[in-house]
Amino acid sequence: MGVHRWMGSGQELAVHLLQPRRLHSVVVTRSARDDAAGFDAEAIYEEIKDWAEVIVVPTGRITYGLRDSLPSGWEVFGTAARVYPTGSGPHGIPPGRPHVVRAGDSIDRLSTELIDEVLFLPDPRTLVASTSPRPGPGARAADPVRAVGAPGTLSLGTGSHSMLVTGVVTGFKDQGFTALIALDNGATSEIHSDDIYSRVPVGWILDTGTRVAGVHEPGAKGLSIGESLLHPRLLQHYSWGQIIPCLVVEAGNESAVLVPVPGESISVSRADVSSNELDDVDSLLAPGQVVAARLVNAAGLRKLVLVDVDDDEPVAEAPPLFRGGGPWLVIDRDHVPEPGDPPSTKTPAGLPVLATPEKQREALRSALLQIDALKSEAKALRQAQSGTRADELASVMEQKDRYRAENAKLRTLLRTKSEALNQNQRIARKKARTTETTASPEARDKFTRAEEALRHELYLEWVQRIPANEKSLYPWNPGFVVGPKFAASFYSHGPALRGKTLKALIQLLTGRAERMAAREVHPKRTGPGGEDPQSIREDGATCWRMSVESGVAGARRVHYWKLPDGRFELHELVSHDTFEL
User: Fold this and answer.
1) Is the Cβ–Cβ distance between 223 and 215 less than 8 Å?
2) 86-100, 225-239, 444-458: lowest mean pLDDT where?
3) Most CB contacts within 10 A, which of 34, 423, 448, 553?
4) How far is 51 from 123, CA to CA, in rounded Å?
5) What is the DSSP string of 218-239?
6) Where are the alpha helices (DSSP H) in 440-556?
7) Burial class for 575, CB neighbours closer than 10 Å (0-12, 13-18, 19+)
8) What is the pLDDT of residue 439?
9) Interhelix angle for 495-509 vs 450-465, to 10°?
10) How far apart are CA 430 and CA 438, in angstroms?
11) Are 322 and 313 in contact (CB under 8 A)?
12) At what angle do helices 495-509 and 390-439 cross, to 10 degrees?
């Protein structure tokens, strides 16, 4: 098909955009000036050709006619592009905003935004469009027919049909499992977790204010947004050695099951979670928690390790599950199942459900059974109500209220349990680090010179920290310089702080620290002001600061020099309030 260069009138183009179409449409307008930059229509077409047609129009007579024949505010002209979804109309989805190229703008960025907008729209083959064009504002749309797609149930006599609509998320109910949608046509709809990822709150996937587009069935509450959902793969989004957020879906004495992305379940053993052989895994993890784990390659197998994750180590952002949405997992944003959640084993997308341990829900089930019994009794009392039984009914209702209050207390206890488990994990990781550090022999005692001991420890840290398949990407380079102050300042601290420093130094020496927000790499200046110049030596070396710790008293920083030949010179390990060299 290729890019279509429009040769007809603007009125004819308006008719085309308002009538049933097989695909969405992107109208790209060209400036009359030869030197004006504009969109690359061919490149856009290659990205969206299965989803939308691309129509190129010269600005002028055609765009004026298009403006006069479309509803107010739907025009496009100049060096711009605009998306016109199939099914456009007052009861469907309006066109997107114009993407205008102005002097100095990044056309690549604007093109990406335009392409994302098109791909955000539902599959046009599943939609319903109007049977006749709307020639201008105020015209009435005809009854809809299915433009493309398999035959389905459609009542033209009543006007009942599927329709492409847009709207905005206004809030949530059912503990975040139902999103409330205000549609642009004035109606309301809902999006349910069961239609996306069962037992995962839809509030984790969408935010209040998020714009959504989907297929709406009149008379049905649910809005289908399946075409806007994303299905990330583990190794497409994360890399080996990263700290990533994971959802706990099962937990027992010996092991647990974690889900880093839907459809990817990884079992972890006690050794992956705690260094204490007496710890039960379910004393540290519970279904519904979101925890940080290191993704490692163990002889070709994917593995998650929680025990060696430091509290201040940066955690990679989870992928969104909705186009334009935020991360679906956030550390410590746990889901505590509410009483009465229906049992389920697996979602349509293959994500295991969040099963609550029996020992935590026994009391809740008991309370719910009693509430259900009381409701039945109250119903029977109302049916046979007489003046003589009013006191009995009031007593029953009072008892039901007491059980409801008890139920609320038990919910609070569950949330408290979740917070306690998060704290237990932190303690377990801290103990593991202490055990590992204190069990290691003091390298300083094995060498006569402190610098030799430091280089030995740094090499071992590189061997341990960098996975085998990444060592070629982050090779060991012994060419760094150890300044006269550094080794002494390093060995003046205890084992735990030295361990943190070694990890930070490996990130620095392999070139990763500058890309890590937690390391806060920034120039070491000659004074306390942000406008003071950076410290520079006579040989041209520039001085920098890097964080080793954060959020603790006397948090440590590394001062180091970048030499003119690109090497690093480690200067000193200092507290955060030390600025002199």
Assistant:
1) yes
2) 86-100
3) 423
4) 7
5) TT-SBEE-GGGB----HHHH--
6) 450-465, 486-491, 495-509
7) exposed
8) 37
9) 70
10) 12
11) no
12) 80
Per-residue model confidence as pLDDT tens digits over 325-363: 889 999 888 876 544 444 344 433 344 444 444 444 455
Q: Are strands 264-269 and 568-575 parallel, antiparallel or unpaired?
A: unpaired
Only one residue has tokens 């060299």, namely: 581
- For 111, 182, 241, 244, 362, the CA distances from 86, given in Å and listed in that order, are 20, 21, 45, 39, 52
Element (H, E) at 199: none
Token pair for residue 143?
């009854």
- The sign of the CA dihedral 545, 549, 552, 556 is negative
d(CA 272, CA 303): 9
pLDDT tens per residue across span 83-97 = 998 865 555 567 888
Q: Scan for tokens 């114009």, then name that residue.
A: 98
Q: Which residues contact residue 153 at a Cβ distance below 8 angstroms, ignoring those fewer than 6 apart?
A: none
Distance CA 345, CA 353 (A): 6
Q: How far is 571 from 209, CA to CA, in rounded Å?
A: 49
Is residue 526 classed exposed, middle or buried when 0-12, 13-18 and 19+ CB atoms within 10 A define those classes?
middle
Provide the pLDDT for residue 133: 37
Task: Report which DSSP code applies to 352.
Answer: B
pLDDT band at 218 (very low <50, low <70, confident <90, very high): low
- DSSP helix/strand/coil, 291: strand
Rounded to 5°, the CA angle 301-307-312 comes to 115
Cα dist from 21 to 8, 92, 120, 292, whole Å: 17, 14, 18, 47
Res 464: pLDDT:
84
Of 115-119, 385-389, 393-397, 558-562, give the lowest mean pLDDT range. Answer: 385-389
Give residue for tokens 């969206």: 48
**Closest C-alpha among 414, 380, 377, 382 to residue 399:** 377
pLDDT band at 413 (very low <50, low <70, confident <90, very high): low
For the residues 32-58, what does the mean pLDDT come to? 88
Q: Quickly count: other Cβ atoms within 10 Å of residue 531's Cβ.
A: 6
- Position 351 scores a pLDDT of 40
DSSP secondary-structure letter at 540? S
* pLDDT tens sequence across 132-175: 333 333 333 333 333 333 222 223 233 445 567 788 899 999 88
For residue 577, the one-letter residue type is D
Of 169-178, 234-243, 368-377, the least confident: 368-377
Q: Which sign does the torsion angle of CA 205, 207, 208, 212 carry?
A: negative
Q: How many whole angstroms separate alpha carbon 13 and alpha carbon 163?
A: 23
Position 63 pLDDT exceeds 70 = yes
Q: In angstroms, what CA-CA distances link 445 with 454, 489, 573?
A: 11, 16, 20
Total-model pTM: 0.46
Contact between residue 11 and residue 75 where contact means Cβ atoms under 8 Å apart: no
Beta-carbon count within 10 A of 72 CB: 8
Report the SS3 class of residue 375. helix
Q: Which residues contact 522 (CB under 8 A, 6 or more apart)?
A: 544, 545
Query: Quick check: 514 pLDDT over 70?
Result: yes
Instruction: Please say whether the beta carbons of 147 and 86 come within 8 A.
Output: yes
Picking from 144, 105, 161, the residue whose alpha carbon sits closest to that of residue 21 is 144
